[in-house]
Structure formats: structure tokens, C-alpha cells
Amino acid sequence: MAQANELKTGAPPELVIARSLAAPRALVFKAWSSAEHVKRWFCPESYSVPEATIDFRPGGVFDVCMRSPEGRDFWSRGEYIEIAAPERLVFRTGIAVGAEQKFNAHTTVTFSDEGVGTRIIVRQIYEVFDPAFLFAIEGAPEGWRTTLDKLEREVARIKTAENRSVVHASFTLERTYDASPAQVFRALTDMAAKARWFSGGDGYEIVEREMDVRPGGRECLKGRWSSGVTTHFEAIYFDVIPNARLVYAYEMHLDDRKISVSLATIELEPAGAGTRLVVNEQGAFLDGYDDAGSRERGTEFLLDRLGASLKG
Q1: Domain that includes residue 242, residue range
Q2: Could you tell me if 33 and 156 lie in one domain?
């Protein structure tokens, strides 16, 4: 929502713009509280903030440099008047060219709970000393709209950063196959042979597969479930001993979200006329992803498919 009153007898308009954000008030308020955050969002689309000085207290400095796409810098300098966390924020800023003040802006931001999110309302009134700068005020509704788009992205970034977590898990699995170590090793390292067993099974469509098994080589498998969810396995090999050992690290993604980073070792040794295979895996599960043992169960499923492929 944005509105501005009619320009009457040279009086500048008042701006009111509101936005709902999917984050608690304290977190949204935090995005206004430091130069680190303000530099990421406090400017219209296509502008940037190369410098900012924020002294977040009543009477503290609020100085922001906005750089245009053409590289021209506009300094907005002012001070905080009122800070009532996480409910209300008032500050005054102005733009000057040299020693001549062009206009001032008095900004009040209120933060209120809206379900599990936050509703912010920005109110801004102006004093204009140079009519040539009325263009900046006339463009304020659109400028604030794109600025709040950036605020929304910054709030999402902070929310993600504050929810960072890592949960570690490990497992060891064994299988004995009625095949030679060379046959099992080929099923693990030859792309055509591995394609017979290394996939999600029913309801899973392969989108991309690449494989280069050597120290420093990479393997990639991307696929899509019938639900539309995509998975992405990306591995790099560190140790390759033919017919005996593979050591590799891999990332797993669900859609665009990285859910884990793992280190895996596969060892092969003769077992009578067959082969004993041992998989040892250590995983770091990221940012709230709850594996709940599914990686171990998934690996068991794949090892069973590997065994079935060796019989074909």
C-alpha cells in the first residue's frame, strides 16, 4: 500500500507505505539496526549503498550513501530521534549539495505483529528547500516499494543465517555379493553399470548424470520425483584404489536447498568366491534438515539394488 496527498501550495506530500513480512518483529527490527544490514537494502532497486554510518540510539548518526547505476553518490545524513524496540523507529535525514540543504525527510516506522509475521508501516513527511528536488519526493512511493523489496530479502537472509545448524550422523553398512571385487568395483565406477542401480527407483526421473571416477574426478546425478521435488547429488573423489577402495565427499540438495555434506568410504575385499563390501559414511545435516535415519535406509536400498544388478 502506498499513498501520497495532493501537493498543495507548494507543500510536499506525505508518504505512507506498508509491507507484511514473514518474520517476527524483533528480527525485522534488527534489519534497521546496523550498517551491516542497512548497506544490503536501504536504497531503491538498481542503487547500492557503498557506505553507511549507523549509531543506533536516540541522537545517534544515521548517514547513508546511495550510489546510482551511473556511479553518482547521494548522501542522506541524519540522526535517530526515537528507538522503541521492536515497535517504533523515528529518524530524520536530509540531502545537501555542498553546504546547501536541498530537502529533509522525517521518517516514522511502526512494527506490529501480524500472525506469525510482522506488519511495518513507513510514514514520511518532507521539507523541500529546492524545488528542483521535488522529483526525489515524487518518486518516493516507487523508491520505497523497491527498497522494501530489498528489506524483505534481507530479513529472509537474516532469518536463514540465524537458523543455521549442523547435526552430525554416521553409519556403517556391510554386504557380501556373489561377484568378484573387480565386478563390484566396475558396478561402482562405470557409468553405464552404475546407472543400473544408482537412482531413486519408481517415480524418479533422471535429469542429468555425469561420472569421472579418479582422484579429483566428479560425479553428478540430478533427478526429479513425480511430486516435482528435485534432488541433486554432487560428489568429488579423493582416493581410488581399483578393486579395493573409494573415498569421496558429496553434497545433497533438495530443490535449491543444500541439506547435507558427507564423507563416504567404500572398501572391497575378497570373501570366498565373492566380495565383502563395507560402506562407512559421516554426514553433516544442515540448517534444520531432519534426516531421521533416511540416509542410512536409502543407502541400504541402493546396496540391495547394487546386489540385484550384479546378478543380471
Answers
A1: 166-311
A2: yes
In angstroms, rounded to a whole number, what is the distance separating the alpha carbons of residues 278 and 292? 22
The C-alpha atoms of residue 75 and residue 52 are separated, in whole angstroms, by 9
List the grid coordinates of 155.
530479513
What residue type is assigned to position 256 of the chain? Answer: D
Residue with cell 541433486: 232
154 and 181, same domain (yes or no):
no
Q: What is the pLDDT of residues 114-171, one digit of tens each?
A: 988 999 999 999 988 888 778 777 888 999 999 999 999 999 999 888 878 899 999 9
Q: Is the pTM of this model over 0.70?
A: no
C-alpha cell at 106: 522525517
Parallel, antiparallel or unpaired: strands 166-177 and 245-254: unpaired
- Is the distance from CB of 201 to CB of 175 less than 8 angstroms? no
Paired strand residues for 127: 104
Across the beta sheet with 15-21, what order do the strands follow? 2-4, 15-21, 117-128, 100-114, 88-97, 73-84, 61-67, 48-54
The separation between CA 3 and the C-alpha centre of its own chain, rounded to angstroms, equals 33
Cell of 128: 523541500
